[in-house]
DNA sequence: CTGAAAGCGCTTACAG
DNA sequence: CTGAAAGCGCTTACAG
């Protein structure tokens, strides 16, 4: 690195007031020059075990880790030298790492990225850090990435890429690593999801109320509970209203823009355009809207489109996208809490968060602009 | 967890053929029942140090870690019991963690998410894992998250959220953690960026060639080299062509859709609309397009808009967005390699990757549809 | 070619 | 209230 002289001379005092480089080398520092427990012990004139007890505030009501004055001295010194425990040593000793692995289909999918932000935020409040890995919904990658994460000795795992059959998860459960699911449910494993069935119903009721009877569904991947449940909820509501959606009008798709394009093209190739389309993902919905436009149809006037998730962009599109808002960030936060409770040995139950329909121009036309 | 009986009875053989749970407990397993080096040594009838040497293929040309047959036996046993080294033990012993910290403004920004995917992918090929943390471009968060990452004893850090002044980085450099920058440059620290000056120039040349003379720039945050350099390149090219862009027509903005909306509104409030706008980020460009539309202007006919990055959505928009494509994934990959070389003790030089202009309807009108 | 020992930096019973 | 010891699972000179 092209260090200038200023940096070469060292930064005497960093912003938090900790004096990390002044004076002589710290006694009993680690190879990188960082203070160890021994450093603090030596400076305080006590045994390392005392320092450890004090800094971990061991001791319940009435039980003190050390005398008040000793404890204070130790804490002051630890602060002054900028002591932070070596997580490798702690991890080795306690066999807990305060690490959690998070597996997602793709982090560039803003839905998953938002969920992950919630996870990261919430786990951090427990002093945990997270590894994320993309699996691209590919079983081989899921396996390999899970191995990698377990090899890192994470305390737990959050899967955001579960296949609804849960077979892979059965294997993981056999390995003894606690985990929870987020976004997608599978088997009987604890999960935090959006109430996708309800979401699908909200979409259907909205379209039915607007008078639509000629409907199509772009349903997502067949292995993801999100698409499955949203579609099921939609179709059930149609059924209840006596509106039949033919099987040829329910097509699977990838969850991205390109997937929506391909699926919408297939629907159009199949005959006359429906008057309304429910797409189980906003990005796929954007792709579908593109195809409709290219076919000379005006979204919101000729064809209504409902998406799912309410990504930030949905409201900023030229034709605002009516969509079912799912609490993405909140799902991440809750999943993190759920895992923490599992790690504490609690039995936990799945949580289903309530979605809300957000009507915009893509179903309301000018009224929704 | 609601384990069914099948899972309770254990999964005898997992998919990779490793027999992890059959027979009696492994000898000298760790508290979680995982095999240790000692497990393998005992099973192979050799000393742990021999196992360690074999599994780490110690030994250069001519130097063997063990006899061929012993080595093979050890490797077979390690494979059979599913041995994977405890990274805490290795980390404690070697004071290297094979961990890298990655700081980004926000992971929900697809630009950063794409860069991060490249980083993650490339570091994984070195056997490294990554921690990501959001800092929201907030100096306090940058400090706190960096502390957190260093406390985890990462071997190195990649900053995707550098302030161009580099003052915070000067402090970090004083702490002895090797790092590189990605996306944004700062000071003389090694970085992998897009050639943003060139990108700005490409945008200007495109608009000038189309005959535009009445220009505006939505310039991003003043502390980010991306916005600064893109704007500088744009203005320099205008200057060279004898076209003056008044200072009032160059406005700072956040990098997201909302930021683009706000900035575009300010430009419009300031007087007559320009005939062309260069926005240094695609999402901000989408926001700007929304404001133009709301003002009754047709993008691509009344006003030309050029964005930056070419996010996947840019081409799928109702009015395709002309934009300067930056190699986001590639930047992440290169930054990872650069850090790895730094960790190997190499002196490394910054890399600037070449952007390409992608013309679409937002500047070409119907011709670009 | 292989073994034995030391030690990385912690935590946690166990004494006193 | 505090100290001393053991040991977590590795790696790495050092012997032989």
Automatic annotation (TrEMBL), chains A, B:
This protein's record includes keyword tRNA-binding: no
Annotated SMART domains: HTH_LACI (SM00354)
Keyword Transport listed: no
Gene3D superfamilies in UniProt: 3.40.50.2300, lambda repressor-like DNA-binding domains (1.10.260.40)
Alphabetic keyword roster: DNA-binding, Transcription, Transcription regulation
Pfam assignment, any one: LacI
UniProt cross-references to InterPro entries, sorted A to Z: HTH_LacI, LacI/GalR-like_sensor, Lambda_DNA-bd_dom_sf, Peripla_BP_I
GO molecular function, one term: DNA-binding transcription factor activity
Domain HTH lacI-type: 35-94
Protein name, entry field: Transcriptional regulator, LacI family
Organism: Geodermatophilus dictyosporus
Highest classification ranks of the organism: Bacteria, Bacillati, Actinomycetota, Actinomycetes, Geodermatophilales
């Amino acid at each position: 690195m092209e260090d200038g002289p200023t940096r070469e001379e060292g930064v005497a005092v960093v912003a938090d007031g900790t004096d990390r480089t002044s004076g002589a080398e710290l006694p009993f520092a680690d190879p990188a020059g960082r203070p160890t427990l021994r450093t603090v012990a030596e400076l305080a004139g006590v045994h390392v075990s005392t320092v450890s007890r004090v800094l971990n505030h061991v001791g319940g009501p009435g039980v003190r880790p050390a005398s008040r004055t000793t404890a204070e001295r130790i804490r002051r010194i630890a602060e002054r030298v900028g002591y932070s425990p070596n997580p490798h040593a702690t991890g080795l000793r306690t066999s807990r790492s305060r690490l959690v692995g998070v597996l997602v289909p793709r982090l560039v999918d803003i839905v998953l990225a938002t969920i992950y932000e919630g996870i990261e935020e919430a786990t951090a409040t427990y002093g945990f850090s997270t590894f994320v890995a993309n699996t691209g919904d590919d079983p081989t990658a899921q396996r390999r990435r899970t191995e990698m994460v377990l090899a890192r000795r994470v305390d737990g795992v959050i899967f955001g890429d579960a296949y609804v059959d849960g077979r892979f998860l059965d294997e993981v459960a056999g390995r003894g690593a606690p985990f929870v699911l987020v976004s997608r449910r599978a088997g009987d494993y604890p999960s935090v999801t959006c109430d996708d069935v309800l979401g699908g119903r909200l979409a259907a009721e909205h379209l039915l109320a607007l008078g639509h009877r000629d409907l199509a569904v772009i349903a997502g991947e067949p292995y993801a509970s999100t698409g499955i449940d949203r579609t099921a909820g939609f179709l059930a509501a149609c059924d209840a209203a006596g509106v039949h959606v033919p099987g040829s009008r329910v097509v699977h798709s990838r969850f991205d823009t390109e997937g929506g394009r391909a699926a919408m093209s297939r629907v159009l190739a199949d005959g006359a355009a429906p008057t309304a389309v429910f797409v189980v993902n906003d990005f796929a919905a954007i792709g579908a809207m593109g195809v409709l436009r290219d076919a000379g149809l005006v979204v919101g006037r000729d064809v209504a489109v409902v998406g799912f998730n309410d990504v930030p962009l949905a409201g900023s599109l030229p034709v605002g996208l009516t969509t079912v808002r799912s609490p993405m960030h909140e799902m991440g936060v809750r999943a993190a809490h759920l895992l923490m409770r599992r790690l504490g040995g609690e039995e936990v139950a799945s949580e289903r968060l309530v979605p809300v329909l957000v009507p915009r121009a893509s179903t309301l036309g000018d009224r929704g602009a």
